[in-house]
Amino acid sequence: MRLHTRQQRLTASQEHVQADMDAAVTISTELASAARLNAEHLARSLRDGSYTPEVLRPR
């Protein structure tokens, strides 16, 4: 029974990854870089406890 449940979870996980891959889009290097910097800024503010809703506002 456990093996069957693990297999079902693996299959569901694989389907989720496939759906993510199917939904992927191509974006410019500049847009990807800006998004990465924004994500790093948000992650840093969450880690150090300085997060405020203003962090999410465009600069």
Q: Which properties best describe this structure?
A:
single chain, flat, 59 residues, 2 helices, PAAR motif-containing protein, mainly alpha
Secondary structure elements and pairings:
Blueprint: H1 2-23, H2 29-48
Give a nutshell description of this structure.
The protein is mostly helical. The protein is built from two helices and no strands. It has one domain (2-56).
In helices, the fraction of residues equals over 70%
- Overall geometry: flat
Low-confidence runs of at least 5 consecutive residues: none
In percent terms, what proportion of residues is strand? under 5%
Number of spatially distinct domains:
1
Separation of termini? 53 Å
Describe the structure.
It comes from Pseudomonas cannabina. This is PAAR motif-containing protein. With 59 residues, this protein is an all-alpha fold. The chain has one domain (2-56). It is built from two helices and no strands. The protein has helices at 2-23, 29-48. It starts with a helix and ends in an 11-residue tail after the last helix. The mean pLDDT is 78.
